[in-house]
Design a protein that fits this description.
This protein has five helices and five strands; from the N terminus they run E-H-E-H-E-H-E-H-E-H. It has 127 residues and is α/β, with parallel strands linked by helices. The chain has a single domain, classed as Response regulator (Rossmann fold). Helix 2 packs parallel to helix 3. The chain is globular and about 35 Å long.
Length: 127
């Protein structure tokens, strides 16, 4: 069993409880310690504390669009990989972040394999 203190922390920003539970399980299976928030405001507070290795952000949040959160997260964690998850057309998101190789857009629904590929696409190596 892996000690949770040694696992890299992944911030999951998802307002739908069932989706959050599933993605937390996926992140754990990949080797991350998930930290879940359901609003952008709470996510920014977590990011301000530091120590986050990866953020998985839903685009449709109640208090701010996830892509706007990703842009603000750059001020707090300039090199942190970010995965934007959306159930809608992802072309606009991909265009907005085309110049940032540490941001990947992932369509919903997604599997553990899809999440692993998205993480690797950000340049974050997996064990």
């Amino acid at each position: 069993m892996t000690d949770g203190l040694l696992q890299p922390k992944a911030l999951l920003v998802e307002d739908e409880a069932l989706v959050a539970m599933i993605v937390e399980d996926l992140l754990e299976a990949i080797g991350f310690q998930p930290i879940h928030t359901d609003t952008a405001t709470a996510a920014l507070a977590v990011l301000a504390e530091g120590g986050i290795s990866l953020a998985v952000v839903d685009v449709g949040l109640p208090d701010m669009r996830g892509d706007d959160l990703a842009a603000k997260a750059r001020d707090l964690a300039p090199d942190m990989p970010i995965i934007l998850a959306s159930g809608y057309d992802t072309a606009e998101l991909k265009g907005r972040f085309a110049g940032d190789p540490r941001v990947t857009v992932l369509g919903k629904p997604y599997t553990e394999h899809d999440l692993r590929e998205a993480i690797c696409a950000t340049g974050l190596p997996l064990a």
